[in-house]
C-alpha cells in the first residue's frame, strides 16, 4: 500500500492553492494530488471549498496563490478551453448545459468536429455523440433538444460531455446525485473502465458507501482547508466523518430535553402533477421534524407547495384543526407558516437592500402606519431579531450582499422570526455557512422549539438530521418512503431509505 | 422532417402562405412569382437588418441603434457620392459597411468592456448617431438629382431576372445559414445567450461574443444604409426613423426569443417576410395602408404569446417522467 | 452563543455613515452639479435665458414626458418597462379628438383621455402579469397596436375642434408664470416621490426589482404590484395626452412620436437602473430639468433639437460609463 503511494507520480498536483472572495476565504493553502488509474475521493461538507476547487481546476477561477502542476510542469488555466487542452475535464454538479440546444451540441460545444472549410460537421457530431452516449449506456437520441429531457437524462448528457474530450483527468462532482440506481451502476462500471484506461479521477461525493466502493484515495476538506489525505484502505467511515465535521458528533448539537406538545400542522395526501405525490405528515408543537433525502428527492418542492409558492394538485393542510387555503406565500405567512429557502441568494436575501429592510419585508404591515413606512419601527424590529441571532454586521443599513453566508442566513431567519410564526420551515439551514454560524443556527433552532415553535428542517446532512430532529421523514423520487423516531436511528438506515435499497439492508 | 413540421418556423411559414393565399383570393395575381419576388425585394433591407438583430438578441442583448446607424451611413455615402460622383459604388459599399462596423463596435465595446446594459448603450447611440447625421449634413437633404446614376442604379440592376438588392439579401441569408449553424462563433451566440453562466465552462467569452454580435449587426446596418438611400434616392436626417422597433418586431414574429439563446435564421427571415408581406398586401387588398402599424403590433403580441416557453418545474416523479 | 442568559448581545448601530456623507456621494448630487453647470452656461450663453416667461416656456419641453417618467421610473425599478406610452398618448388623444367632434365638453374629454390610459395600461399589465410575457416585447407590440389604431381612425387627417376651455390644460397658468403643467409636474413629483420612498408599496417595488423571487418568497404579491404599476403608467400617459393635446390644440396619429425612448432616457439618466431595483424620483426630476435646460439653452443659440439629442445620448452613456471606466482603470492598476 505504502509503495504505490511513494512510487506513482501524480498527473496533477495542487500545492498551496488559495482563493479568496470579498469577505470569504474559499480555499486556503490547499494540497491535492491525482494519480493515473486511481480514483481520489474528495470529501467535505457543503461550503468546504470543493466547488471552488473544481472551478480552479477547470479554468473558471484563477487561484490567488499556489501552483497547479501537470506532469511536473507548473501550468495556468486562464480559461475553460486551456484546462480542456491540458486534458482536464469535468462533470459539474450544477448542470452547465443549454436547454435550447440539441444533446449532440451540448456534448460537443466548444470542441465540435470540423469538416470542410473548418465548418462544423453536424453528421459526425451526431454520430460521435451517439457513440459516447452508447458507451455510458444512455439511451438518448442526440438530436433531442436538451430542454425536453428529464433531470437524470440531462446528467447523463453532462457525463457524456466530459467524456467527449480525450482527457487524462476526469473530475466528477457529485455525479450520482440525480441518477437512478441502474444509472449509478452504469456509472460505476464506467469509472472502472476509465481507471483501466489510466485516467486520474477526482470523485466528489457525500455518500460514503460509494466512496468506499470505488475510491482508492481520499482527501478531506473542511472550511477551505485540506485536513487529511490518504489511502481509502487505511481509513474507516467514522474517521472520515470526524475529519470532515471536525469534531465528534455529540459535541456539536445542543441537547434537547423538551417534549413536543399537541399536533399543530397536519398535511394530508399532498400531491403535485410532476414533483411529488401522496405526502402526509403531522407536526407537533415544539417539535423539530427532519426531512431527509438525496438532492432532488422533492423535499423542497413539497415545502414550497406548503408555503404557497407552487400549487399542489391535491391535498389538505390543516393548522390547529383549521383547513387552510394557501394560494400564495402571503397566505401562508398570514397563517403563521414561514419558509427559509435553501437558495439564500435567489430566494432568501435581497442582497442589494439593507439588513433592516430585508428583515421587515414580510412584516411591513406591523411596522408601518396607513401604508407609510416608519423607519424607527423598522430598525427596532430588525435589531430585536438580528441581535438575538448574534448577527455580525457593522450596521443595520449595511447591504445584505456584503455579509458572509452565515450572517446572510441569520438575516433571512430573523426576517421570518419577526413575523412571529407558528411553523417555521428551514430548508438546508446550514448549507454553505461557516462552523460558528452553524452552531448558532442549531442552538437557536433548539431554543425556538423549546419555546413552542414547530420546526420542519429539510437537510441533506445526516449529522444535522440525527442531531436536531425529534422525528425524521425520508423522501425519494417525490414520494415519502419512511418515517423514523430519533431514538435508535442510525445513519445507515437513513442512507438506505433515501437511496432506495432498504430491502437489501439488515 | 417531422421535427420541422412541429417547429415554430413551420407554423410561421404556414401562416405566411395562408396570408398570401388570402390576399390572392381578394386580388388575383398577388401570389404570382413576379409579384412575390417584388415583395421579397421590398423586404430585403428588413431581412438583412433582422438577421443582424437576431445575433444580438440571441446573446440576450438588443440593438436599438440599427436604424440610426443605417441613416448615418446612408447620408455619408450620399454626400460622398454627391461631392465625388466618380467614386465607384464598390468603394461606397465598403465605406458604408466599414462605418457601420465601427458604430457596431462602439456599442459592443461598451457592452463588453464596461458591462453597460445593451438597452442603455443603444438607446444612447440611437440618439447620438441620429444627431451626427444632422451635424454632417447641416440638416440638408441629398436629393435624387444630386446622386450619380450608378449610385442609384446598383441595387436595381437586374441579374438573372432578380435585382441586385435581392441577390445581396440572398447572399446575407446564405452567409448566416452557414455562419450561424456551422461555425464556432455562430454556436457561441446561442450558448452565450442561452446560459451565460454555463457558456464560460465551455470556454466561451460571453462579453466578446456579444461584442461580435454588435459588430456584425452594425456592419449590416451600414450596408443597408447605402441600399436604403440609393433605393429611395433621397437622404435626410429622419431616414428610417423608428425603424429600429420594426426590426425587433420582425425578430419577435420570427420566434427569436427576447431572453436569448433561441431562434433561427429561417425564423428571422420568415418574420421579416411576414411583416413585409402585410405591408405589400394592404394596398392591393384595398385596405388603407394606415392599418399596417396596428396589424404589425397585433402580430408581435400574438407571436410573443405563442413563442414564450413557460417555465416548468423539474420532473421528479418517475410516473410523471415516463408520461412526459 | 445566541440568547443565553448572562451574555449581552452586541448592539448594532442603525446606520453606518452619517447622513451628510451619504448624501454627498449620491447620484442625485452628481446630476444636480451637472444641472447647475448647464444653468450657469446658459446664463452666459444668452441674455434671454433668465427671463421668467422664457424659463416657464422651457419647462413645457419636459413636463409631459416627466409625468410619464415618474410612473415609468417605478415600473423600471420593479424590473419591467413600458415602451407603449407614446402609443397610449396617440390613442388617448385620438379618442378625445373623436369625442370632441361630437361636441363633448372638457370634463368628458379629460375623463376619456384618462380612461384610455387606464385601459391601455391594464392591457399591458394583463399580458405581462397574467400571461407572463416579457414586457419589453409586449409593449413594443402594443406601442404599434395603440398608435396603429390611431392611424386607422385618423389616417392622414387631424382632429382640431377642441373646446376653448380645454386649452387650459396645456397653455393655462395657475399663478403668474407658473403654468398648469408645471404645477401638475411638481404635484406628481411629490406624489410619486412619496409613493416610492415613503410607503410599503414603494418598498415592495424596490424588493421586486432587486429580486422578484425573494420578494415572492417574502409574501409580496408580485403580479399585483406590477399590474398596479402598468395601470399607473397608463394613467400618466393619459394625463400627458390631455396636456399635450390641449397644448397643441390638435391631434394627429403621429403625436408624441418616439417619446417612449426619450422618456426612458430621462428615467435612466435620472439614475434609475435599467436592470431594476434602484433609482429615485428626485433623480428623474433633475434629469428632466437637465434635458429641459439643454433643449432650451441650445434653442436660444439656434442649435436645432436634433443636435441636442447627441448631448442627451452622450450624457446617458457617459454618466453610466464613467464610474465603471474609473473602476476598470483602478482595477487594472492594482493587478
Throw out a few tags for this protein.
heterotrimer; A: 506 residues; alpha/beta; Rossmann fold; 20 helices; disordered N terminus; disordered C terminus; B: 324 residues; mainly alpha; two-stranded antiparallel ribbon; 2 strands; 72% helix; globular
Percent of sequence in beta strands of chain B: under 5%
Alpha-carbon distance between the termini of chain B? Answer: 22 Å
Total number of β-strand segments of chain B?
A: 2
How big is the Rg of chain C?
Answer: 22 Å
Roughly what is the average pLDDT of chain B, rounded to an integer? 90
Order of helices and strands of chain B: HHHHHHHEEHHHHHHHH
Give the helix proportion of chain B (percent range). over 70%
Task: Give the uncertain stretches of chain C in residue-range form.
Answer: 1-8
The count of strands of chain C amounts to 2
The CATH class label of chain C is Mainly Alpha
Give the spatial strand order of the biggest sheet of chain B.
Answer: 1-2
Main-sheet strand order of chain C equals: 1-2
Series of H and E elements of chain C: HHHHHHHHEEHHHHHHH
Shape of chain C: globular
The rough form of chain B would be described as: globular
Pfam family, one (chain C): BPD_transp_2
Transmembrane segments (chain C): 108-128, 135-153, 173-195, 228-249, 255-274, 281-300, 306-329
Subunit structure (chain C): The complex is composed of two ATP-binding proteins (LsrA), two transmembrane proteins (LsrC and LsrD) and a solute-binding protein (LsrB).
Protein name (chain C): Autoinducer 2 import system permease protein LsrD
